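Structure first, sequence second, as always.
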């Protein structure tokens, strides 16, 4: 069982996935900082709230418990973060797909074909018998 686990854990795809998750976590921190520290403060100034993310919301009274807040600013912060991450991944996949298309080998050329004189279907040029009507074909 230990040997099977070792094979599973050291597969190329598994290591690639682990690296992707680690880089994704680091990338998420950078995006969170970009949105929270750089994009949201100017947006907060436009809306009249110095701390847009934490203060912008709707306060609802809850009988017997005080009040609760629907945090609209925090929600918008998360939407902006998601859109930035999704766009960055889109750009990355677009580049990868272009590289794959450039590296893809050309499709092999179709073998030269001729027409069967009996059923008129396309057959390989070197065929001696038609695959469609099984007629014996004259040599080329």
């Amino acid at each position: 069982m230990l040997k099977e686990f070792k094979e599973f854990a050291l597969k190329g795809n598994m290591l690639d996935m682990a690296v992707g998750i680690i880089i994704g976590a680091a990338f998420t921190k950078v995006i969170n900082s970009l949105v929270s520290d750089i994009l949201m403060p100017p947006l907060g100034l436009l809306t009249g709230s110095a701390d847009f993310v934490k203060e912008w919301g709707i306060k609802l009274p809850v009988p017997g418990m005080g009040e609760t807040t629907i945090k609209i600013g925090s929600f918008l912060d998360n939407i902006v973060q998601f859109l930035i991450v999704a766009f960055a991944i889109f750009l990355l996949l677009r580049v990868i797909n272009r590289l794959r298309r450039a590296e893809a080998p050309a499709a092999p050329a179709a073998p030269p074909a001729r027409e069967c004189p009996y059923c008129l279907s396309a057959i390989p040029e070197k065929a001696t018998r038609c695959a469609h009507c099984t007629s014996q074909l004259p040599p080329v």
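Margin note: The longest helix spans residues 12-47.
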